[in-house]
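Take a minute with the sequence and fold tokens given here and flag any structure token that looks odd. Thanks in advance.
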Amino acid sequence: MANRGILVGTVISSAGVATFLACVGEDPSGTSPTPEIDGSTSADGSSTTGETDSGTDSANVSDGGRCDPTKPFGARKPLDGINIGNERNQGARLADGEKMVYFSSFQRDGGIGSYDTWVAMRPSPNDPFDDALLLNGGNHAEDERFPTVTADGLTLYTMYFPGGNWDIYRATRNSVNEPFPKTTNVAEVSMSPANDHYPYVLPNGSALYFDSDRSNEVEIYRASVVGGVVQDPVLVQGISASGKNASAPWVSADELTMYFASSRSGGQGGHDIYVTRRASTASVFGTPVLVPELSTSGDDLPNWFSEDGCVAVWSTNVGLDGGNIGAKVYISERPK
């Protein structure tokens, strides 16, 4: 395994290491060195060290938090270790205290399809990610994107194109010490011949958000998950209207904040990133607001946000020089 030594003596949860080793097809109970777990992690497992160009500012929350959530996100930076050469990457979702990432990559060396699901780790949120490895199991020989995994590491959802139209697929495992099996169709939310895209599962696995063109408009839906069974989806109210498509949702754990992509008028071109909020889960989401610092003249998609609102991971096909780059993953952070 490439660069395994980087894990030695670093602050990574033992559960995270077990998840990673199982994901890439190695025995978590084998002889690989166990990373050190010490007192330099916060309550959510994140590092409490400083900031680097590719990491996140993980200042101790005792000084008021690592950012001012009312300030705009700062300038974007490539998510180091994910973007390699001319490869296309998107759908990066951080996990395990921002020290693990699941993402989709197009025809990366070692893959089995067009877009496949990959996984990588890093010693702390302030370091670049180590070499990414193909997810062991879960992948098919066709196109699958935007992996999303529950916080316990046991359930994986992706969007998958077996031919004809996009569907939502899922895989579950009994332990993080096991690899994922191949994903299978979630019939409760996949509505052929409609295209169902961009799944996002809540950390506790209680609900799945996704978008669909089943109404001839691209709109966002929510499906409860009860006892591991996905329920019939319901349209999310407040963000969709005729000609104002909404796609690629990311939703906070309390379900009060949603970031999504839309090509509605008033943006900066292509699909831009918007945010909408509500006071309670009994309320309708408010009027969406453009997030200009996360939007370009091209197509921009929200990938993942930290629960404290300090870190945004997103993908776009517009490079830092304004040229077309296919798809790359960036990170933007709010200042203190």
